[in-house]
Write a structure and sequence with these properties.
six-stranded mixed beta sheet
């Protein structure tokens, strides 16, 4: 079966229906194929494969059941070697809340001490987000890692707390170090739109080939395609609601401006009317004296 999958992948041509920027496809492949998960983590954390003894997904979902829109929480919580917690998340749509969202996820992951445990027993946590937009446009970067730090002397406050971002829209900014660990190839694999592009990327190492093969197998599964399509539709619906809300806000703002203008005009007319009434009263008083 494995050989047939490789042959089928190598013979595939044309457009890939769903790639790994679809968050369900991202979750499906990384949960389904531990080798792909291991290869991705090795690249992101600059590890050798032999350094990874155990990879456990702490929040598995039932891949064979339908998932309601409200249950589409598709980030992946991983326990690495029983001593490091990693959260992986794909988000291609800019919801303008990433810094708060990722920090919230990271804090929840870190705050998991059991009763009786000491604070220094807390496991290191790493949140890695794959975004298809630039988080800080004034300082674009392909792969950035952030930690708590003294703002004066740049001393790291605690290295157990890390927030990383892979900007899929800025692959061209990959550093030599990023390229050495082929993080740029993983990013291109996630975004690949054709099987020809995927095959070129898959030549680079066995983990990328395993990922490409998994993308092919998943795209051949009708149930997986249905769920990927459901995610696209849910995202499309959310974008439509967002556009409608923005349009309503703009219309409301325009109406408020018009109302404000009318109120100012009304206030001016009332002042002019008061002045006119005072003038009429003055004339009437003069006439009454004659």
């Amino acid at each position: 079966m494995q050989n047939q999958q490789v042959i089928s992948f190598m013979e595939a041509t044309g457009v890939i229906q769903y790639n790994m920027t679809n968050d369900y496809m991202f979750r499906y492949i990384l949960q389904k194929n531990k080798k792909v998960l291991k290869g991705l983590i090795c690249a992101l954390l600059h590890l050798r494969p032999e350094q990874i003894k155990k990879v456990e997904i702490r929040n598995p979902i039932n891949l064979n059941e339908d998932i309601k829109d409200k249950e589409f929480v598709l980030d992946i919580e991983v326990l690495l070697n029983d001593d490091t917690q990693i959260n992986l998340e794909m988000q291609v749509e800019n919801k303008h809340n990433w810094t708060d969202r990722s920090l919230s996820y990271l804090c929840r992951s870190f705050d998991q001490l059991y009763r009786g445990q000491e604070y220094d027993e807390a496991l290191p946590v790493i949140h890695i987000g794959f975004l298809d937009y630039t988080l800080f446009p004034d300082a674009p970067e392909f792969y950035a890692t952030n930690m708590l730090m003294n703002v004066k002397n740049h001393r790291i406050y605690n290295d157990k707390f890390k927030l990383s971002v892979v900007d899929l829209s800025k692959i061209e900014l990959a550093t030599e170090e990023d390229k050495a660990f082929q993080i740029d190839y993983w990013a291109r694999l996630f975004k690949a739109k054709t099987w020809e592009e995927l095959k070129m990327l898959a030549e680079k190492n066995e983990y990328l080939q395993e990922a490409a093969q998994s993308v092919y197998v998943a795209n051949a599964d009708e149930l997986v395609r249905q769920k990927c399509r459901a995610r696209e539709e849910a995202e499309r619906h959310e974008r439509t609601l967002k556009r409608n809300m923005e349009k309503l806000r703009e219309e409301n703002s325009t109406l408020q401006e018009k109302n404000s203008t009318l109120q100012e005009e009304n206030s001016t007319l009332q002042k002019e009317n008061s002045t006119l009434q005072a003038y009429v009263a003055e004339l009437e008083a003069k006439l009454a004296k004659r």
